[in-house]
Amino acid sequence: MSQELAYVIITPYTLYKSRTGGILARLITRTGLELVGARMFAPSPELVQRYSEAILSANDTQDRRIQELIRDYILKNLAPDPKTGRRRRVMMLLLQGEDAVRKVRSVVGNISAERRGGETIRDTYGDLVLDEAGGVRYFEPAVLAAPNIEEARQKAKLWAEYSDKDGGVVEETIVYSGDEKPQRTLVLIKPDNFRFPTGRPGNVIDFFSRTGLYIVGIKVHRFSVAEAMEFYGPVREVLRTKLKDVVGGKAKAALEKELGFQIGPAETKQLGELLGPAFGDNQFDAIVKFMCGSTPGECEESKRGNPGSEKCIALVYEGVNAVNKIRDVLGPTDPSKAPPGSIRKEFGSNIMVNAAHASDAEDNAKREFGIVKVGDNTFKKVVEEFYGK
Fold first, then answer.
1. 381 and 282 inside one domain
2. H/E element, 217
3. Would you report the helix, strand and coil content of the chain in percent, each value rounded to 5?
């Protein structure tokens, strides 16, 4: 069976309620598909209008009345607020694999006033409430997805067409009071969460939702060797100096066992001074390889700018005191020292394989934004490479 590309749109209300992680976890685990693209949008009236016009479909198993409800919902809830003109946040995910469109639609589910528990995403997160006369009292679809391959192609290309103008790291979509000063911080869902189809990426995002912050940017990112070296560059000198005592102690124990005599404190310190920097460089190379798939020495210099084989999700969170709130939920670098309920305690294995990264200061966040470039439009590239321009 040939590869397909499916999309899922997470609605403004679902984003506002911080249900993103649960939805992503279901999509990955229940479909087995690969997440290949993601982008935040603040849709313009033009995009909303064109998308709404494409909703009614004779080939959709959802009945006509529901399709009309979805069309009207899009016009009302994805468009800018008519009172303030403020645009609303929308997240779009791209998943690829065999039979992708049917699998995604099956997990998303149809909409019915007679819910059957939590089998599908819409069973759990969507709502259709009717009054006694059968009129619609409340309607929330939670997510939007195409009913068939042709409409998946048509609608993905439509959103790709607007993805430069209406997408990226979205601005002025959140309302703050006059005395609130929002920050932005970077989060990386690291490669250890993508070894096989698992709910971990979504579960980690769910943990971050406890902060009450807002996602304003998202990108599926594959670090190049050059990017990983620059991103973790400040760590390199720390590793070269910080580990001298540890390396000296390990070298002492190994040599005493091999040579059969005791090594004194002065010689142990010399061993640390001699071997510490080399060991630090080795650890730095291991971090680079973990993040992008190869060490600097394994990659030709001319290819160090190419995307690597390992995948991350890069997220921009916005809100008051964002840096500290995210770091508190993440926990310390070493999972063994992280408190219960923190991300690294729950999902981390060791100092390097520790589930996620978050900026540790506002200035550092700005430096890291400049490397990862969450606003770069890889979403459009995925759509165009799959369907053609």
1. no
2. strand 214-221
3. 50, 15, 35
Tokens 């040579």 correspond to what residue? 259
- Cα(169)–Cα(36) distance, integer angstroms: 18
**How many domains does the chain fold into?**
2
pLDDT in the model for residue 226: 97
| Mean pLDDT of all residues belonging to the chain | 94
What single-letter DSSP state applies at residue 81?
Answer: P
Determine contact, residues 41/15, Cβ cutoff 8 Å.
no
Distance, CA of 62 to CA of 56 (rounded, Å): 10
- pLDDT of 120 reads 94
Tell me the residue range of the domain where 297 lies: 228-303
Dig out the tokens for 185 from the structure: 């911080």
Helices vs. strands in the chain: H and E counts, helices first? 16, 10
Q: Looking at the structure, do residues 155 and 283 belong to the same domain, yes or no?
A: no
Cβ(330)–Cβ(342) below 8 Å: yes
Residue type, 138: Y
* Domain contains 141: yes
- Both tokens of residue 317? 């969170």
Class of residue 61 by CB neighbours under 10 A (exposed 0-12, middle 13-18, buried 19+): exposed
**How far is residue 248 CA from its own chain's centroid?**
40
Say whether both 160 and 240 belong to one domain. Answer: no
DSSP SS3 for 189: strand
Ranges of H-type helices in the chain: 12-16, 20-31, 45-53, 64-77, 100-108, 121-125, 149-161, 200-208, 225-231, 233-242, 244-259, 265-292, 322-330, 343-347, 362-372, 378-387
Q: pLDDT digits over 166-186, tens only?
A: 999 999 999 999 899 999 999
Residue pair 226/60 in contact (Cβ under 8 Å)? The answer is: no
